[in-house]
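ok so for the tutorial part 2 we go from a plain amino acid sequence to predicted structure tokens. step 1 is just haveing the sequence, like this:
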Amino acid sequence: MAAAPLNRSHNDDPRKLRDLIQKAFNLARAYELKSVVVGMSGVEGDLVFPEIVDYVGSALRVDDGIFRMTRERAVFFLADADRERAQEIMERLLYGFQERFSSVEEQRVSLAYFEVTPGIPALTVRDVLPSLFGTGLVTH
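step 2 — the prediction. this is what the tokens look like for a chain of 140 residues:
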């Protein structure tokens, strides 16, 4: 059985990412709460990566969020967490996936973190994405 071709419907609306970044900024500015934006990357063509994203996304709290950029990239928003706590959460969830689906080969994911702290003057998607996925990233 062939995999379904990737098209725009497999990705979230770009406005959703802008809204997640704005939410992080608003929490920092209005309530002085730290938040973390996490970039998760998989290997191109990895059929398990979307399952990992779904698993992690299903374990997030109501205040958290997920944005699926492409089949191999996703952004998670962890509200009211600092970088250390975000790393603990992501490692626990990835370990949980591996334990639950032990027949799956070792995960090949990369994680990057962008901590949003109180006092940040402004924050846009263009400020965050290069930190998560590199400077050559083009978004649509």
